[in-house]
Amino acid sequence: MTAITHVYNYTVRCPHYKDPEHPVTWLNHIEMNQSCEIALNRITKWHELSGDKSFETNKFVVRKAENEDAYFSMQSDRLKNDGHALVTFKIFLDDCCDDAAPEEIMQHLIEDYQQRLAKLE
After folding, report:
1. Predicted model pTM
2. Pairing with 3, which of 12, 81, 96, 117 sits 20 to 30 Å away (CA)?
């Protein structure tokens, strides 16, 4: 049996404000943390409220929440030396980011995650 040795939680919040010094884009609002507590909270919530499948990309199934304008996904990956990585993604969209595409955001986040995993091997 292997343990979860690495946890990655990505959150993208489309900006609710306009900053004249920076373009309004989801790229400026990516948060990443490694909190097991957040990952477990998300897994528990999503288990109870699984939402509807929106799309699939790079073997990640992305679901749309039923009660909010949010998308979410999670996955685990086996690592060398009997480790496991757990990753969760949550994307919040609002009216400010009409041009934000959840598929594009997920592609960006998955690439970042895969780069982090590559550094572990």
Report:
1. 0.88
2. 12
